[in-house]
Write a structure and sequence with these properties.
Distance between the termini: 49 Å
CATH superfamily: MetI-like
Low-confidence stretches: none
Mean pLDDT: 86
InterPro entries: AA_ABC_transptr_permease_3TM (IPR010065), ArtM/GltK/GlnP/TcyL/YhdX-like (IPR043429), MetI-like (IPR000515), MetI-like_sf (IPR035906)
Radius of gyration: 21 Å
Organism: Borborobacter arsenicus
Shape: globular
Number of strands: 0
Domain ABC transmembrane type-1: 25-213
Largest sheet: none
Helix content: over 70%
CATH topology: MetI-like fold
Structural class: mainly alpha
Membrane topology: Multi-pass membrane protein
Function: Part of the binding-protein-dependent transport system for glutamine; probably responsible for the translocation of the substrate across the membrane.
Number of helices: 10
Length: 224
């Protein structure tokens, strides 16, 4: 047992690497705070474009969503960060990671929002149009708020997955939590930094995970 603690839960090692891990955690949180709202906006835009009811546009959107959801996020990051420079498109690691997360999650959020829009009864739109409200205003101020409320649980769940996916930044040597833990492990020659990083992920994300689970359960009970 002592050997296990010395290797995987060494207190002295944890204390020495904690400042480095906290700096990595700050980068991780920054990535999530930038990528999440952009992903939500792009997903909502895709869902609203479906409402245009144009066959060509709908086909293009379906292809876009399938591409976003089918390409593994690590492969997508490698293409954006390592391949695009050969085409003259170079970007900082932070921008590349955020763009990767946004592209990947646009497909998921787009489908969630589209399901939310479809769940709003049509008479809601008809009532707004009958009152002389323009169609764009009906969508933005009547339909969208109800749609978001109807799919709040899957939106929150996908937001949690996005936050965890920020660990892909280690692939482009960004000093986020996983990357700094790997560097610290190489310096101290034991896996305590990785265990500590896992603990920090848990501490930060567990409360949000429980809130998502409770809201999902509440939604299910409300339906039945």
């Amino acid at each position: 047992m002592q050997a296990f603690l010395n290797n995987f839960a060494n207190v002295d090692t944890f204390v020495s690497v904690l400042p480095l891990l906290l700096s990595g955690l700050l980068v991780t949180v920054s990535l999530a705070l930038v990528a999440l709202p952009l992903s939500l906006l792009s997903g909502l835009l895709v869902a609203l474009l479906f409402a245009v009811k144009n066959r060509v546009l709908t086909a293009v959107l379906f292809v876009l969503i399938d591409l976003c959801r089918s390409i593994p996020v690590l492969v997508l990051l490698m293409i954006i960060f390592y391949a695009l420079p050969f085409l003259g498109l170079m970007m900082p690691p932070f921008v590349a990671v955020v763009l990767t997360l946004v592209i990947n999650n646009t497909g998921y959020f787009g489908e969630i929002f589209r399901a939310g829009l479809a769940s709003v009864p049509k008479h809601q739109q008809e009532a707004g149009l009958a009152l002389g409200i323009s169609r764009p205003r009906v969508l933005l101020f009547i339909v969208v708020p109800q749609a978001i409320r109807n799919v709040a649980a899957p939106l929150a769940s996908n937001a949690l997955e996005l936050a965890k996916a920020t660990s892909i930044a280690s692939l482009v040597t960004m000093p986020e939590l996983l990357r700094v833990a790997q560097v610290a492990q190489a310096n101290v020659y034991n896996p305590t930094p990785l265990v500590a990083a896992a603990a920090l992920y848990f501490i930060v994300l567990w409360p949000f995970s429980r809130l998502v689970a409770r809201y999902e359960l509440k939604t299910i009970k409300a339906r039945y």
